[in-house]
Write a structure and sequence with these properties.
CATH architecture of one domain in chain A: Orthogonal Bundle
Structural class of chain A: alpha+beta
Distance between the termini of chain B: 56 Å
CATH architecture of the largest domain in chain B: Orthogonal Bundle
CATH topology of one domain in chain A: MetI-like fold
Shape of chain A: globular
Oligomer: heterodimer
Strand content of chain A: 5-15%
Largest interface: A-B, 54 and 55 residues
Number of strands of chain B: 0
CATH superfamily of the largest domain in chain B: MetI-like
Number of helices of chain B: 16
Shape of chain B: globular
Radius of gyration of chain B: 28 Å
CATH class of the largest domain in chain B: Mainly Alpha
Radius of gyration of chain A: 29 Å
Largest sheet of chain B: none
CATH superfamily of one domain in chain A: MetI-like
CATH topology of the largest domain in chain B: MetI-like fold
CATH class of one domain in chain A: Mainly Alpha
């Protein structure tokens, strides 16, 4: 083939892939703009005919409805601002130190610098909190508070449920996963059917089950199940004694923090010695000594840190102590049971995915069963477990919105009440979406940091 | 030392009785070592304490009489309530004299599914045409009106299991093309379309379904021109479809990324246009990989349609409240929940077993 191909004419604009992509995108943007403009116009007309004024001004109006469960909201003034400022400053300083050290020597920080950066990131905010403890004002929602305050209270309840649900479902999921992995045939099958039962039923059905069936079986206030005054269970909820901080409470809490930091330092030292010399260092007893000894010392010096406030039957209900409403209990139990089934599957498949050779090699190195699990299997399994667990935590945050169906006053349910009262549908739905998006982004941000710690370090 | 000869072979000994057969299995899985035996006893106790009261309630002390007075004499479940209310659980407040229509629609779907299970029919063109026509036929039957000559039964009469299944199937069918486009947009390198798809997917995946349902039921009417009313069921469908198209798109993106680069390059080398490459080469392979996760997605839709009750539809879950507020069977919530849970569980378990079967059957991606 000696003749050469004639030089092609330039490809016309509408036949080149780039040109087509641009035309397609322009059509898309045009269509989207048209949709947005027409929707905006329709909304203006519709709002006018319904007599609703748009904008977020309504948030300052008085709410006027009752919220069954009120979480304290610290007001953004005085002490709280100083605390937040010192928290941001402390984190920034410790980040700076870490970066500087890394660029100077290329090695991770030694224990001296570590304690300095620890002081800035944890100690400094704690110190600020202690110094300004009296100027932090905590506001509680009342019927005369604003809609904004009502939404904040709802958000507080959402976060409460989410945090408790995440912790509880992880622990329960871990137990179920261990049960499924156990060599005991019966136990493993119970756990299997627990998972199959719970993950194939809608979470709303499960919430209804706990709220309308299980909690309705509980006795009346007069016939409460009473465990010596420590735990009281009846139709109105679960009552526990609450801790009332006394004079020495601050010192007591501070010593616990100090003890935890000391244990952490001990553990790092033990790992370093193990790495350098191969000699395992036992830290259990010193750690227990710190954890029990320091707070005990604080108790002796500062007096009894807490007194217990027991719930007492007064009139038609129990007063004092900590009361968990039936709605809260049903929501937390329902979400925990539902998500624990998914968590158990994630943990089990993560552990099973670590190749058999790893376990055999570790056994060949004469590790005992605990060491095999802790040093070889778990670090590898965590890499597989963490990403899907993140989406389960997100699922808890999102599914907590189902509380609207059983009347627990969390974010969506409070927002729904405001929506009915004020008719500000667009704004409320916008606030919902914005806030949930922020929660989701925060959780995935935190889990991504953790994931980058456990992820495979390429060498 | 004597020389080795075969005749000196020691005959094989039988393994000890405690390590083979039934005894060996019991010993290994239930009794040895001692803590295993403890676990077995605890497990037995757990099973007993969970199953025995349920058995007593559901079987021993239960009644199946259609008469509520007879049922009241029994301490256990009143299954007569379920027998009495069966059609309501299945179709909601659909008019009694028209209930044969959903029944025929169900028969059509069951016949089509069973025909599809026969391998030799599966590839026939007639079956495919029937599948494509069936949604229209089913809708015409259930809704009525138009050329069918049947009386119209509006969507506010729809309910129960029928509504749950219809919502999930229609939402899946509607979400599928949207999610394919979103996934293609997200994997493309178009500077405007890609961030748009990413933003949509991440926004939807970051918010709970309930906020989308509220948006579809209270905000969507505001967006529409004055005088244009959207049906309540249709509004819920818009919310569910928006929600699941984002999740489905992420699964399909996984499939698109699971295809080797060579396939794209080969299609380009053959001079195929973008759409030809996508439709003829890429999507058939990508979608085949993601069938199991798509089935799991469908299970998610089926379970999450239960949320439409919060915006006022009477699906299978809400039927529990509707039927138990009937004075005849007042407060029989336990029976209703067990019955509803049974249906959800059977459907979801069957689907998830099917998806696991597909996953096992599927050749791995490396082949």
């Amino acid at each position: 083939m000696s003749e050469r191909l004639a030089p092609q004419d330039k490809v016309p604009f509408w036949r080149s892939p780039q040109g087509r992509a641009w035309m397609f995108q322009l059509c898309m943007v045009g269509g989207f703009l048209w949709l947005a403009v027409s929707m905006y116009r329709n909304t203006l007309v519709n709002l006018k005919t319904r007599g609703i004024s748009s904008g977020f001004g309504f948030l300052a109006n008085e709410a006027g409805f009752r919220i069954g469960e009120v979480t304290g909201i610290p007001l953004p003034q005085g002490g709280l601002l100083w605390f937040l400022l010192s928290l941001v400053a402390g984190l920034a300083i410790s980040q700076l130190i870490a970066r500087q050290l890394k660029s100077d020597s290329g090695t991770p920080m030694n224990s001296k610098w570590l304690s300095v950066s620890l002081f800035f990131s944890i100690g400094l905010p704690m110190l600020t909190l202690y110094v300004f403890r009296d100027s932090i004002e905590i506001a509680h929602y009342t019927e005369s508070s604003s809609y904004f305050m009502a939404l904040l209270t709802g958000l507080g309840n959402t976060l409460k449920v989410t945090v408790i649900g995440c912790v509880a479902s992880t622990i329960l999921g871990l137990l179920i996963a261990l049960g499924r992995l156990s060599p005991n045939w019966l136990l493993s099958n119970i756990c299997r059917w627990y998972v199959e039962l719970n993950r194939n039923l809608p979470v709303l059905l499960q919430l209804f089950f706990w709220y309308f069936i299980v909690l309705q079986q509980l006795p009346n206030v007069r016939k409460s199940i009473d465990l010596g005054g420590w735990l009281i269970l009846n139709k109105r909820g679960l009552f526990l004694p609450s801790l009332v901080p006394q004079q020495g409470a601050w010192l007591f809490c501070a010593t616990i923090v100090v003890a935890l930091v000391a244990i952490w330092v001990l553990r790092r030292r033990a790992i370093r010695i193990l790495d350098e010399t191969g000699m395992p260092v036992k830290i259990l007893f010193p750690a227990l000594g710190f954890l029990i000894g320091l707070p005990a010392l604080a108790w002796l010096v500062g007096g009894q840190p807490f007194t217990l406030d027991f719930p007492v039957l007064k009139g038609f209900n129990f007063k004092g102590g900590t009361g968990l409403t039936p709605e809260f209990t049903a929501l937390v139990v329902g979400l925990t049971v539902y998500v624990s089934a998914f968590n158990a599957e994630i943990i089990r498949s993560g552990i099973e995915a670590v190749s058999k050779g790893q376990r055999e090699a570790a056994r060949a190195l004469a590790m005992n069963e605990r060491q095999v699990m802790r040093i070889v299997i778990l670090p590898q399994a965590m890499r597989i477990i963490v990403p899907p667990m993140t989406s389960e935590y997100l699922a808890i945050a999102k599914n907590s919105s189902l509380a609207v169906a059983i009347g627990y006053p969390e974010f969506v349910s409070v927002g729904g009440t405001i929506l009915n009262q004020s008719g500000q549908a667009v704004e409320i739905v916008g606030i919902w979406m914005g806030v949930y998006l922020c929660i989701s982004l925060l959780i995935s941000f935190g889990m991504n940091i953790y994931n980058s710690k456990v992820a495979l370090v390429e060498r | 030392m004597s020389e080795y000869t075969p005749s000196q072979n020691i005959p094989d000994r039988q393994p000890p009785a405690t390590s083979v057969g039934i005894i060996g299995w019991v010993c290994k899985n239930l009794l040895c070592p001692w803590y295993n035996a403890v676990l077995t006893i605890v497990s037995c106790w757990a099973i007993w304490s969970a199953v025995a009261p349920f058995w007593e309630w559901a079987v021993t002390n239960a009644s199946i009489s259609l008469d509520p007075e007879v049922a009241k004499q029994h301490t256990g479940a009143a299954w007569g309530f379920i027998r009495d209310m069966w059609p309501v659980f299945m179709t909601g407040v659909y008019p009694a004299e028209e209930r044969w229509r959903p029944l025929i629609a169900l028969c059509i779907v069951v016949v089509l599914v069973s025909l599809s299970l026969v391998a030799s029919y599966r590839r026939s063109r007639w079956l495919k045409i029937l599948w494509f026509v069936s949604p229209i036929v089913v809708f015409a039957l259930v809704y009525g009106g138009g050329i069918t000559g049947l009386p119209v039964v509006g969507t506010h009469y729809w309910g129960g299991l029928m509504l749950t299944i219809m919502l999930s199937i229609v939402a899946m069918l509607a979400a599928f093309p949207i999610s394919v486009l979103l996934a293609l947009g997200r994997t493309s390198d178009m500077p405007i379309a890609k961030p748009f798809c990413v933003a949509y997917i991440e926004l939807i995946r970051g918010v709970p379904l309930i906020t989308l349902l509220f948006m579809a039921s209270v905000v969507l009417p505001l967006f529409l021109p004055a005088g244009m009313e959207l049906d309540k069921v249709l509004r819920a469908l818009v919310g569910i479809t928006m929600f699941f198209s984002a999740y489905l798109a992420e699964n399909i993106r996984g499939g698109l990324q699971g295809i080797s680069k060579g396939q794209y390059e080969a299609a380009d080398a053959l001079g195929m246009s973008y759409w030809k490459k996508t439709i003829v080469v890429i999507l058939p392979q990508a979608l085949r990989i993601v069938i199991p996760p798509m089935v799991n997605n469908f299970i998610g839709i089926l379970k999450d349609t239960s949320l439409v009750g919060i915006v006022g539809l009477v699906d299978l879950l809400q039927i529990a409240f509707a039927t138990t507020s009937n004075p005849k069977w007042f407060g029989r919530l336990e029976e209703a929940y067990v019955f509803i849970a049974f249906w959800y569980w059977i459907l979801c378990y069957a689907l998830s077993s099917y998806s696991q079967y597909l996953e096992r059957k599927m050749p791995s991606a490396s082949k």
